[in-house]
Amino acid sequence: MCWDNAVAESFFASLKNExxxxxxFPTRARARFAVAEYIEVFYNRQRMHSTLGYRTPxxxxxxxxxxxxxx
Length: 71
What we know:
Oligomer: single chain
Strand content: under 5%
Number of domains: 1
Number of strands: 0
Distance between the termini: 33 Å
Helix content: 55-70%
Shape: globular
Structural class: mainly alpha
Order of helices and strands: HHH
């Protein structure tokens, strides 16, 4: 299927456009830290995703866990 990589490609496009291209990194370790920080702090907890009904991944996971416990 042509959509198999759509989510991954969208994520990497967001990472590059929202974080990577806006900064410079003195070391590779600092770049790794910045990517991890972007994912954990911004992308998963603050950024709304249309594929998740305009919720954050953290909200979608919490909803899923709540629904699984109720079942």
